[in-house]
Amino acid sequence: MIVNDKLYQTVWIEGTSVFMIQQNQLPFNFEIHECKTYFDTCMAITDMTIRGAGAIGAAAGYAMAQAFLQFRGNDKAVKVREARQDIENTRPTARNLFYAVEKVYHAGLISAESAVVEAQKIAQKDSADSKRIGELGSDLFKKRANILTHCNAGWLAFVDYGTALAPIYLAAKQGKDVFVYVDETRPRNQGGKLTAWELHNNHIPHVIIPDNAAATLMSQGKIDLVIVGADRIAANGDVANKIGTLGRAILANEYNIPFYVAAPTSTVDIECATGKEIPIEERDQEEILYQSGIDRNGNPVQVLVCSPGSKALNLAFDVTPAKYITGIITEKGIIKAHHQSIKKLMEENQDS
Ligand code: MRU
Is residue 267 part of a domain? Predict the structure, then answer.
């Protein structure tokens, strides 16, 4: 993706350092954050300097490679196993993280260089898969389409292109008249901050809406299609995604609006029989109680926006049952969200 006339990916490795776009500073500042050790990369995943399923996966793969590069000597195997634990403890929901760590760990048992190569392959595949999802998904849009999206499943959430936003970028390039309603996505506002920033930079017409506006817009016939990303897809087609997705899916069903999930096969967890087994992250209540931004002079501010002394419950994801999902756009094709289609998809994936 081009930012300030320069081509960027969300995360990459150079030597022993991992570099990433500092997403906590967006949309106000564009900065690159350097992680010198695997533990720095873990911290960046935990504090959401980098976030979004694919980007977390790539970062976790690089962190695993960093651990192999970092440790030497007799206790290397023990240290690397501890590092793997640390990486896997950063965030629990996105399947891509565990997928990447597993692959890079096994490559690293051959050599540290193999670990780096494997991590790079995972990042490249994430980008290529997203591009393909864009190509397949853009066919779903008619010449004019009003689309609702939730959270950020754009290029910032992956290594490049994104999933839910990739079809939108391509449809706009193809000359289609697309308009995007962007859910603000409290509490961290990935929609209002990140999706809106991406769309603005790409000159895609859009408007940010509060999270509670979707029902009204749908009831007024203003939304033709909903497209969201995914953090983990269970074997039966249930989908974990940013909290609030379930509500959009139920509404879309009520108003007969197609509801699509866009995600690469690295997000599918065939070991998870249903969505009930997907671990749901609970984050710090401060993310709800305080909001951050800049003041009118451009200075960073953090303000308390809730009743002082009250507690908040911050579940970061919800699970949308397969029955509400019109289709899942993967790099291998658009499939039905049900058990047989997912099983077939993953079997074909193993063969390729
Ligand atoms: O908590 P985040 O920002 O890492 O959440 C992940 C997401 O960005 C969303 O759930 C997204 O819609 C799907 S993953 C790209």
Answer: yes
